[in-house]
Each structure stands twice: as C-alpha cells, then as structure tokens.
Give the backbone structure.
Amino acid sequence: MISYEEACDIVFSAKKFGISLGLDRMELMLGELGNPEQRIPAIHIAGTNGKGSTLTYLASIFMEAGYRVGTYTSPAINKLNDKIKIDGIEISNQEFSLIIEQLKPIIEKVSGSQFGPPTEFELLTAVAFQYFATVTKPDIIIIETGLGGRLDSTNIVTPIVSIITNIGHDHMDLLGNTIKEVAFEKAGIIKEGIPIVSGCKQPEAIGVMIERSNQLSAPFFQLGQDFLCESNQSMFSFQWKDIHYSNLKTGMLGKHQQENAALALMTIQELQDYAISELAIRNGLMKAKIANRIEMIKNEPTVILDGGHNPEGMEALANTLKVNFSGRKIKVLFCAMKDKDIKGMLQPLSEVATEIVLTSFSYDRVMDPKEVNLAFPLPNAMVIENWLVAYRLIEKNLKADDVFVITGSLYFLSHVRNELKI
C-alpha cells in the first residue's frame, strides 16, 4: 500500500489543475468506484456564509441523539484528513491512503479522457463518498459544497434534505456578478421533490430559490417566513407550525450563529426517519463548536480566530464584536485573498477595530498589503508584511482586557494554525 505521504502527494499534485467546475469527471470517477454516492443518506449544504456552522450544529445534534455522523467540509483546517470525519474523528492516514490507492488507476483513466485530470477537491470528494459508503457507513452524512453548487463536485449526490445558507458576494469571477446570479448557482443543489431549507436574506435570492423549488416540486422552507428565529441577546427561540423551542443557546457567538442553528432545526423537522429529542437539540446546540468561526482560543487577553472571507462574513464578525466586546480595544490582524472584495471586508471591521494590521503570507492568491493600504486607506490601519512579525508585535502589546482578532481568509488561518501549532 502507498504511504500517507505518497497519498497526499497524489492529491496535492492535482492542485496545478486549479478549479474546474463540472460534474463529468466526478461521474466518471464514481462510476468506476461503483457509485458510492448513491448509497449514502446525505444532507447537502450550499451557501456563501454559514455552511460550516450549520453543518456543525446538525452533526452535534445527531451525535447527541446517538447517531453516527459523517461530515465532509471545506477547506481543511490543519491537514487533508480533517475534511472527512466520523463523529468528529478524522479519517485515519491508513484509510485515506488505501482509498487514494484505489483511485490511482481511475485517476489515470479520467486524466486520459476528454474531461481531463480530476482536481484536488474532486479527489477528496471521491475519497469521502467511498469512505462513507464502504468503510464506515454512518447513519447520516452532512456534506458541504466547495464552491457554488450547481457545478460543484459534491452535487452528484442526491440528498434527503438540502440547505442553502445566506447568499453573499463571493467568488463573483466564477459564480456571477450579481446576487441573483450567485443564487442561481447555489440553487443548483435543489433536487426534484427533495425538501430545501433556505437562510437567504435578499429578496432576489429568495425569489430564485422559490422559482427553482417550484420547478422541481421541492418543498421549500424560508427562514423568517416559514419558520422563525427570534434572538434575545445570548439566547433565541425557534418556531415552525406548532413546534416551538424557547431559550435555546448556541456554542458559537453571534446572532448569525443563531440563524444558522435555526436552519439546522428546520432541517431536522423534515427528517422523519430520525428520532431527535428536545434534550438532544438543546445539548447539541450548546456543544457545537467549529474552528475559525469566531473561535476564542485564549482569554485575558481575548484572542479570536475568524474565517470570514467576504463582506457579509466581516459584517457578522463586526456585529458580534460590537455586541460582545463593547468598550474594549479590538486589534485586528487581517489578510485576505486578492480576488476578494477587500474594501467591502475592511469597511465593517474599521468601524469596530481600534487598530487593523494588514499583512501577508506565502500563498499565490494572497493580497499585497501595501497595495491594499494604498487603494483603501483607513485611519486605523497599518502594514506589516510579515504576518508572524505582526502577530508577535500585537501579542506583545496586548493588555488583559484587549481583544485580538486574526481574520480575512480560511487559508490564512490554516497557515497561522499550522505555524503556531494551534
């Protein structure tokens, strides 16, 4: 059997093919594997913001109810394995290597076809489906799209429920220049007759979801219309028809997290084959945590990691900081990808931050902090190009009551975590 390092090299070598949307390569690969995606009970999640959090709430609730839960998330936090988990435990190096070895001749066959070589994300998606269908066989699997929805490699699955979280301005170069165009791509995960739970907020996005759901006779449930989430600071209530839960508390901060939790609760209402008690719901919501989602890794001073990577994500972060850390000095270490709406991301942060340090790290898509500072000058911003130098300088000058936020990109946070062994 190939080693884990060799397996990772095979996956990483696919990086050079970049992003190539479409389902043809996935259909060919999974067909060669015996179509494992057809043998898994899945919940499929798309959206711009909130996918990972909604997935985490669902997984936590199902585990509290005694079910075995498979999850496939994006991107990896520390290493490739942590995208694919059973009950929060990542696929082992041995199992990962074994499935990659099974895929080796298939990769060669696909690469020689008219569709070209599979991408890194497609390989990992194939590993996940094969692992869940043939090795672990969990009771429920929750799958997060990588990019978009309609042409995302995960969209080869036929789920039992689909979820579309809030839509925002992200990957506009690939998904469209307007919210309506982005919503159309996300709505591509809606399947005929399969219930769809929506957390969209813009009327134009909701309109796209309703139109697509009607075309496919898919039962449609819209947050704020068909089911309600009413926030009261640290607690919230959920209501759908005669189902009502009050004084619910989430394990992650922010009103947006309560809304993500409400999407999870609505999804559960549509899963008649699973027995989920109110106690499992309450405990599951409170225990749910996810790396890089307003994640507090230290107190006194407070250090927070947040993977917001678009204007909507930054607005959610800024609002949470405003509510939970009012009156405290907030220092931000910021690094985003150069293809993002960086001005739109910095604006909400500048309204709550005492100081913003623009920085960089070694990655081909990373922003140039000097260019950003020239293009979008802010009175409370400065540039320190080396992120580790910037981190150490901010850390050195922190007082016990200060808040230190590292944000701008999940890729940046993954690099920070690896370097600092967080």
